[in-house]
Design brief:
With about 900 residues, this protein is mostly beta strands. The chain folds into five domains: about 50-270, Jelly Rolls (Sandwich); about 275-370; about 385-395 and about 425-490 and about 500-635, no CATH class; about 660-670 and about 690-790, Immunoglobulin-like; about 805-885, Sandwich (Immunoglobulin-like). Helices cover about 5% and strands about 45% of the residues. Strands 53, 54, 55, 56, 57, 58, 59, 60, 61, 62 and 63 form an eleven-stranded mixed beta sheet that branches. The protein has a ten-stranded antiparallel beta sheet with strand order 3-20-21-22-5-14-7-8-9-10, with no helix packed on it. Strand 11 (about 130-135) and strand 12 (about 140-145) form a beta hairpin. The chain is elongated and about 130 Å long. GO terms for molecular function: hydrolase activity, hydrolyzing O-glycosyl compounds. InterPro entries: ConA-like_dom_sf (IPR013320), LamG-like (IPR006558), Secre_tail (IPR026444). Keywords: Disulfide bond, Signal.
């Protein structure tokens, strides 16, 4: 008998013997004789009881068991392979004669189905672990590499087998050829055609039986409804007895379903990345890369279903998307370059995730944060430094524990002085209304920490919280600035990230100070759409103007901006504050980390919900981000990190914007108070009635104001249906004192160039175009609800075939004080003529239908010098013209 050289190896197998664990070497290496075959008596006996892989020598190594695939119409084959550095010939990987996976000499994976083949265009690298999978359903075969769909093949016949076909690993089933040269591990066979998502969830982790369901060994989540009975063979290579690898779908060793191994003389510790595990400090690719174990570190970043365990200090300057992420105790991953860390399945944080700059943590709808996580995230955000100014906050984290999530916080517990972002420290607190403007750490006044939870919208309902008062996830709070010399102060939120469903409650017509509860941007559109059963669909954002310099309410300079599904309008100053200062900053669609805002209950109120489907990676300097936490020139800034690392690897999430017509009109009061209104033509999404989410009800009580009027209801934003040039939209005006006011066009979106925009003065009958210039008019003190309307034609469209403006002339002779109207239309009669002051006061009205129509002469007396409006009512319509009396 030929001697076999046994070389002791680092691989250890633990066997229970006499109540003690004893160690045995089971890695058997020998010099392979190329003439050996499966009948050779040089076969070494292999016994394994630990995670391992098998090495197939490309000469005579293989495994075999009785065929079983012919009984199934749906099949999935999968496993891990690594081609040897000497791989150069065709190699059979797994399967039976009519359905199998192999790798050809050009290192392309091939799936054979009956007599047809599907060959991958991907060329495998040697000495690199790959997960390969093939699915069969009916006559369609699909191929996946590392969980990524590669291609598919459709043939016209169903699976057929020969009677003597076996299921083999490492060589063809019917003859001794195409021996595979390389490593193999974790072979699974299902009697189901697995979906892409099911395959991806199990690529980078082993699977276990969870009360009859298939569960991941890392994420502990059931996999897409798969029952364990769907797994008909599972050769983990962890349990091998007398050269038989156990089918681990069975709880007991079953030789009949095990796979008999021949000439397998190298068995070593498992290497395939289940999951990826860092080996050293540095960037993620470098930290994971392991040439000795054939692990390609870049794969952890390439495939968004990767599962990664952080055991070192990692810095990441590119977006990272994964299915599973585990950060070990006292270990850290720092996201640089304003990047995204996105988790799609399972997240456990026992260490630290540091989200520097505008970096964000995204957890998608199926992502779960392990409640036993005991670590934290750190995320910076800036607020106004002005010590007189409120910032409306909402924490993206809850307090640190190891048992629950979304359990709430205190301001002092989670909000830190981030003056040095690399070393956040506790804030110092005082109880008085004023805090020192220079201190280290910064000192803030706890007096200004308030909440406003589900109460009627009156000022007295603010409730004090203080720095140690309990707040729930999703609740907002107010806090004034530090008084630092810089315009903004950096804070760092430190705690356990909020994730998943977070609920609040608001009663009918009440207000609730809420806020973005996540360490990522919140899509206001999605939040509104999903909660219209409880809220009125408008969000209100407070902004204290930078010019504010008092704690006294009556002197405040600031106001509330609004946002709904049509768009946003800039803040205005409500009654009770000074009315001074201004802002043109309009709230965008995406609400940044830490931003608080009001929601208001609809007619019934109820529970509203935040959830992960509302989250996106949108940076604060995006033009569609809410501007209230953004410096005026921040859009144009490219950070030093982006210069260093580039901007092609930190792209934001894609989203679509609507292309509806939108028009913003403005009102300037006699004392320069500016109100902006927004109307959007939302086609089938809105009606001409009041629609939740599209019509923003006016909730202020301003001294000077403008608003849309819809059957007496005041609106700041109006969502209309399809654009109609003949539609009119009534406007209400409120003035505290008589004086000159302006109607302005503040902006348009998706409005055709030839669209006219008018303010129609129904009193004078004049149409004032605001497309290229403001409309100025003197108005008396009080509310005016029946005079002005927004329209898109100047009234000529209602006169049928007549051009009244050209055929009816109006003139005034100052010498005789006569008003002369000449009607040149024989089939149109002028019925009445009225004269008005520019303020809309009626001076005189004449019935003239019986007068000579081509020369109507009307005496005007006791009228002061000035500009007046003459309105002519005819049987074909009305026209108005200006006259000047000297």
């Amino acid at each position: 008998m030929k001697k076999v050289a046994l070389i002791k190896h680092a691989f250890i197998v633990l066997l229970l013997y006499s109540s003690n664990w004893q160690c045995y070497s089971t890695c058997l290496k020998k010099n392979v004789d190329k003439t050996e075959n499966r009948q050779s008596d040089n076969q070494s006996t292999v016994n394994v009881n630990q995670k391992s892989y098998l090495f197939f020598n490309g000469n005579n190594s293989y495994g075999t068991t009785s065929g079983f695939l012919e009984n199934y119409e749906k099949i999935t084959l999968m496993g891990w392979i690594s081609l040897s550095s000497q791989f150069q010939n065709d190699g059979f990987i797994m399967g039976e004669y009519k359905f199998n996976i192999s790798c050809d000499a050009s290192k392309r994976v091939k799936v054979t189905y009956n007599n047809s083949s599907l060959v991958s265009s991907v060329i495998l690298e040697k000495a690199r672990w790959y997960h390969i999978a093939a699915t069969l359903e009916g006559n369609r075969v699909k191929l996946y590499i590392n969980g990524e769909y590669v291609n598919q093949l459709t043939v016209n016949n169903v699976l057929s087998q020969t009677n003597d076909s076996a299921f083999t690993l490492g060589k063809k089933p019917l003859n001794d050829s195409d021996y595979f040269l390389g490593k193999m591990d974790e072979i699974r066979v299902f009697n189901k055609c697995l979906t892409s998502s099911q395959i991806q969830q199990m690529v980078y982790q082993e699977i276990v039986n969870n009360n009859g369901m298939i569960k991941g060994s890392v994420d502990s989540k059931n996999m897409g409804g798969l029952v364990f009975a769907d797994l008909i063979r599972y050769y983990k290579m962890d349990v091998i007895q007398n050269n038989v690898a156990q089918n681990q779908t069975q709880s007991n060793f079953n030789t009949a379903e095990g796979i008999q191994l021949y000439n397998i003389n190298i068995v070593e510790n498992q290497e395939a990345p289940m999951p990826f595990i860092t080996q050293r400090d540095g960037d993620l690719t470098t930290a994971i890369n392991d040439v000795q174990k054939d692990i390609f570190g870049k794969d952890a970043e390439t495939y968004p279903w990767s599962i990664i365990q952080i055991k070192h200090t990692i810095t990441q300057s590119a977006n990272l998307v994964n299915y599973g992420l585990i950060v070990d105790h006292e270990k850290r991953i720092t996201m640089l370059n304003h990047t995204k860390l996105e988790n799609r399945g399972y997240l456990k944080i026992n260490g630290v995730i540091d989200l520097e700059g505008k970096s964000q943590l995204i957890q998608t709808e199926k992502s779960e944060l392990d409640p036993t996580s005991s670590g934290r995230i750190e995320r910076d955000q800036q607020g106004q430094s002005n010590k007189f100014n409120y910032n409306y906050w909402s924490s993206p984290v809850s307090s640190i524990n190891n048992s629950t999530i979304n359990h709430g916080y205190t301001v002092a517990g989670v909000m830190k002085d981030g003056t040095n972002p690399n070393n956040p420290v506790n804030i110092a607190w005082v109880n008085g209304t004023n805090n020192p403007t220079t201190s280290n750490p910064i000192t803030l006044s706890s007096y200004w920490i308030y909440k406003f939870q589900n109460v009627t919208p009156i000022y007295a309902n603010w409730a004090t919280v203080g720095q140690n008062g309990a707040l729930l996830a999703g609740q907002g709070y107010t806090l004034k600035g530090s008084g630092a010399a810089s315009p903004t102060q950096n804070f760092t939120f430190v705690g356990k990230p909020n994730n998943g469903e977070i609920t609040g409650f608001v009663s009918a017509n009440n207000l609730n100070l809420s806020g973005n509860p996540y360490p990522s941007a919140l899509d206001a559109n999605e939040f509104i759409k999903q909660n219209l059963s409880a809220i009125n669909g408008t969000l209100y954002f407070w902004e204290h103007f930078t010019t504010n310099n008092t704690h006294n309410l009556a002197g405040y300079q600031g106001g509330y901006a609004t946002r709904n599904l049509v768009g946003g309008t800039a803040p205005v100053s409500p009654t009770g504050v000074s009315g001074l200062g201004s802002s043109t900053r309009t709230p965008g669609r995406f609400i940044p980390v830490g931003q608080g805002f009001f929601v208001r209950g609809n007619a019934t109120g109820g529970s509203f919900m935040f959830n992960n489907s509302q989250r996106l990676f949108i940076k604060e300097n995006n033009t569609d981000s809410n501007v209230l936490f953004r410096a005026a020139n921040q859009n144009a800034v490219t950070s030093e990190e982006e210069v260093q690392y580039g901007t092609d690897n930190n792209q934001e999430d894609a989203y679509t914007e609507d292309e509806f017509m939108k028009i913003r009109i403005g009102f300037n009061s006699y004392n320069n108070y500016h109100r902006q209104l927004l109307i959007g033509f939302m086609n089938e999404l809105a009606t001409e009635e009041i629609d939740l989410g599209y019509d923003a009800i006016h909730i202020d009580n301003q001294q000077n104001d403008m608003y849309f009027l819809h059957n007496g209801v005041k609106l700041i934003i109006q969502g209309a249906s399809y654009f109609d040039i003949n539609k009119v939209y009534p406007l209400g005006i409120k003035t505290f004192a008589a004086g000159n006011v302006q109607f302005t066009l503040d902006g348009t979106e998706n409005v055709p160039e030839d669209t006219d925009i008018f303010i129609h003065d129904k009193t004078t009958g004049l149409y004032h175009s605001i497309k290229n210039e403001h409309f100025n008019i003197e108005l008396p003190q009080g509310e005016i609800h029946n005079r002005f309307e927004l329209t898109f034609n100047n009234g000529t469209l209602s006169t049928g075939d007549y051009n009244l403006n050209n055929e009816i002339t109006v003139a005034f002779t100052n010498a005789q004080n006569l008003l002369i109207i000449k009607n040149n239309l024989t089939d149109v009669t002028v019925e009445t003529v009225s004269i008005f002051t520019i303020l809309g006061q009626t001076l005189a009205t004449w019935n003239v239908e019986n007068e000579t129509q081509n020369n109507i002469t009307l005496p005007v007396s006791n009228v002061s010098t000035g500009t007046y409006i003459v309105r002519v009512q005819t049987t074909a319509g009305t026209i108005s013209k200006k006259i000047i009396i000297k």
